Amino acid sequence: MSPLERWATRMWYGGGGGWLAPVASLYGAASALRMRAYASGWLRSVRVGRPVIVVGNLTVGGTGKTPLVAWIAARLRAAHIEVAIVMRGYGRKGAGVRAVDAGSDWREFGDEAALLHRRSGCPVIVGADRVAAARAAIAAGAQVIVCDDGLQHLRLARDCEIIVIDGERGFGNGRLLPAGPLREGTEHLARADALVCNGERGPALAEQAARRGEAPLLTMRLVLEAARPISGTGASRPLEEFRHQRVHAVAGIGNPARFFRALAAHGIELIEHPFPDHHPFRPEELAFDDGLPVLMTEKDAVRCGAWTSASMWYVPASAELSPIDAQAMLAAIGRRTGYDAVAATR
């Protein structure tokens, strides 16, 4: 992480930021004015003719929404529903609306888009104009659109909103940007169709979410899978094979500490290397020259080119919900979209 990111994280989740409250008030006023403009019809939300599910978060940084998008897409596909994933394609070089092509450079789409295309098997359409992206997905045959992020992108009308909350960090100091991590106030929780807590939720977080509406508060956890060679050749290795072994742990994601803790829980001795989210790696940054294995997230692996070595591995993480919470999630989606994916889980 950059020094600025480390400083902001300490402030947002350590109770500081009060001195930035006047700036946060201006940010909040502008956000509220924009929301009122859409609510009054002065700015128009566009319906695209198919159900739209938005999976997002209120806070800056990683909460686990991308694995949840992959989970939702997989469950809908299991119910024989044609799904397309729409997203902005953060950090991409290209412009306009484009479908992710597995054979092209990830920079044309963004690392998360390339990751979701590989993980979900669904069409992934990127574009800053999410309305245009959704229409392109529908033209290609999509029955349901799942948006990764876009909670604040009000121009695209949605039928179902799912908010992901970091169970450990919660809402930090509860302040809006830049005084805190909130993109918008927690009153948005009342409009959600489901709230999903990534990790164990504390009593304060559960109480705060419960006060905001009738949406079910569900729990998911991210489960690390076997390590896979980034080179694409060779067999996977269960994480247990790295137990008591010293490794370089690399994470250029929104919350690197979560990945490091998950690896350490497997008894792996870590040399931690946190990088900024979406960091474009250079070969020299990962050339540790000591022969130790390098373990990184799947999103990081997307950003490593042909210079990867046999010692470099990525560790996929999948969202896991209890059977009860999975049923509740799919039921909430079914009520809002008209598609019954619950039957596929029986």
Gist?
Helices cover 30% and strands 19% of the residues.
What is the name of the CATH topology of the largest domain?
Answer: Rossmann fold
The CA-CA distance between the termini, in Å, is: 43 Å
Structural class: alpha/beta
Q: What CATH architecture of the largest domain do you see?
A: 3-Layer(aba) Sandwich
What is the CATH superfamily label of the largest domain?
P-loop containing nucleotide triphosphate hydrolases
* CATH secondary-structure class of the largest domain: Alpha Beta
Q: Which bin fits the share of residues in helices? A: 25-40%
* Major sheet details: 9 strands, mixed
H-E order: HHEHEEHEHEEEHEEEHEEHEEH
Per the principal axes of the C-alpha atoms, what is the gross shape? Answer: globular
The overall average pLDDT, rounded, is 91
Q: Number of helical runs?
A: 9
Compute the gyration radius: what is it?
20 Å
Report the uncertain regions: none
Placed side by side, the strands forming the largest sheet appear as 3-4-2-5-1-6-7-8-14
What's the total count of β strands?
Answer: 14
Structure, explained:
- The chain is of the alpha/beta class.
- The model has no long low-confidence stretch (mean pLDDT 91).
- Strand 10 (246-251), helix 7 and strand 11 form a beta-alpha-beta unit.
- 30% of the residues lie in helices and 19% in strands.
- It has 2 domains: 37-222 and 321-345, 3-Layer(aba) Sandwich (Rossmann fold), CATH 3.40.50.300; 226-315.
- A 9-stranded mixed β-sheet has the order 3-4-2-5-1-6-7-8-14, sandwiched between helices.
